[in-house]
Design goal:
Layout: H1 2-7, H2 11-49, H3 58-64, H4 86-92, H5 100-124, H6 132-148, H7 150-158, H8 163-175, H9 179-192, H10 199-205, H11 209-229, H12 231-240, H13 259-265, H14 270-297, H15 301-315, H16 325-329, H17 344-354, H18 357-360, H19 368-372, H20 374-385, E1 408-409, E2 425-426, H21 441-461, H22 468-488, H23 493-501, H24 504-532, H25 534-557, H26 602-617, H27 621-640, H28 646-667, H29 671-678
Antiparallel strand pairs: 1-2
Helix pairs in contact: 2-6, 5-6, 5-8, 8-9, 9-11, 10-11, 11-12, 13-14, 14-15, 14-20, 15-20, 17-21, 21-25, 24-25, 24-26, 24-27, 25-26, 25-28, 26-27, 26-28
Amino acid sequence: MANAEHTGRPAEAFGATDAGAARARLSAARLGLWMIAAILAVRQLAVVLSTPRGERLTYLETWIGPDGVLHVTGSLYDSTRFTGTPFGGLVLKPLTRAAEQALGWGWTFGTLLLVVALGLVAARALPQPVNRRTSLLAAPVAVSLLMLSLPVRNTLWLGQTSIIPVLLVLLGCFAVRGEKASGVLIGLAAALQPTVLLFAPLLWFTGRRRAALSAGVTFAVSTAAAWAAMPHDSYTYWVHHMAGAGLGGQADALANQSLHGALLRLGMTGPLEIGVFLVLGVAVAALGLRRAVRYAHDGQLLLAVAVTGCAAIAVSPTTWQHQLLWVLLAVVGRVGKRASDRYVWPVAVLLVMTLPAKMMLPNMAVVYPLRDNVVLLAALAAATVIPFLSRTSPHYRAPIPTEYAPPVPALAPSPDGPGGTPGRRLPLLPFLRRVLTRPNLLLELLLLRVTYAAYQQVRLAATGGSNSAGRARAEEHGREVLSLERFLHIDIEHAINHAVVKVDWIRNFFDFYYESFHFVVPLTVLGVLYWRRPVDYRWARSSLGFATLLALVGFWLYPLAPPRLLPGLGIIDTVHGVQDFSKPDYGTLTALTNQYAAMPSLHFGWSLWCGLVIAIVAPKWWMKALGLLHPFFTVSAIVATGNHWVLDAVGGATVVGAGFGLSYVFQGPRARTVTAAAAGVSSSVPVPEKDRTPS
């Protein structure tokens, strides 16, 4: 108030100014999010419309092309390519009169409009109370997530009708007035996707009995009309194929993410499989409906709709990828009492619904059952086991907050600081500040796996592949590195390599070390830190992530042939065997790695990171010394086996040092350093006993 009087401006003016600034920031954020959604939509359009006409909207052409199933005089299901219900075929019949190209364009843009409508309805259906900021930003976020999801991308590519049933259900539950109209929309959705009829008991048990009856009657009338118009097709769909099972592909195909498909993939067949499927289906439907009714009574109707849709996915004989949008809607559920746990479920759902299953789980036979059914498992989890919080829970809106380390003065004080106090503090990115609690293990493992899968893809795609131009560029860079090493008198690769080859036990030792410890040691260090020193784990993990990101930039900008792949040098490849330089693709030893991603050396970089972390956090001197031996043996191995130049190791050390530096600048010092530095300014943040290191 004194400031207001001093300036001659009333306090209300400052409040109005702050409110105006907040509205401006909110408008800018909303505009930015809508721009992201528009960019994603344009990208999807470009992908579809830039493909050859014969490959674009292949399923739509299957319907209405010159030889499409909607044109033939026989059954819709003669080719087994049409997977919709007979009612769906009846609805689509009039489309055959439209020009194929015009229908393709209309279908593409119409699909985008349906996605936008679906996002708007879902955003308006968020459980109350929702503040104004959330309500304004939710719509573009929802549309963007839908655009990125595999079901929508599949719909744009193949011309499926999966969005319509979901939109009809949401409109029936949240948009239209009157129970009869609501039931009609849901009944039409069930006529297109039969297991959507599960929403009728949801309506019944939540007190909307007139809507439930209307949905059942609409479904029955629509199905009967299709049966009267196409009796043979109706018999084929409902009886011969058991509600569409086996249409559009084999029921045990990976694309069928239902209990029936999972049981078939596990090797169960015949009456036993049908019996198990029916028992499990009834159990999932009953439990899912029970949970959905509870969430609906709790005021979380959108979550109830998502849970019911997830149950419908599981109990359907066939649920193809384009019919899985219900799982994405389950992202609205809140799970976890702690703020740090609140992100696990939404992150898991978004990854499952946007990334291929191979990026979620490693390519190991033991995890194939999980990887092959990852979307089904997410749907089952949402329908039956995920403990979504009730709105009456004190943690629903106010989870247990995360404990952060206080900021510390930066090394270079700003002259603007009052009283000599530095005016700038670390971290420079406040949202990345140091956390003093252990991260959620499931979320951590999930993100580590996806990050590494993305790292593999970027590394493989880096310039300098097996094509002739990339090979020539990488070899030219190899000669540049060799020339620089000769100038510096450190070109020791050939001498060490040939000396090691002459002694079998040394050669075998370095081969084993090169192949065995690259992943084992970093993962072990991360695991020990997570369990024993969670605060140091976050610091170490972030530093390693920054270093690896910088290395990817190096792989991309400077593809480099290692010594073993440089013709004429005479290096003996002790690990991979003799290279045939006469073959154009000799450098691509496998389809999973880029052999020219040598600068910087992450073999040495990761080992140096391990050694430094152990040297910093280990309580005993011998532990520190043992940790520092790892980078020494690693640099010896990469040079002796001919897999890296000496300067590659220098590059690896550089990115590791930069990784620690970026972690310091963006996130601030290690938590113990933060606490010690802040002790003179404010009360120190307590560190758990097992995280304290003797001085």
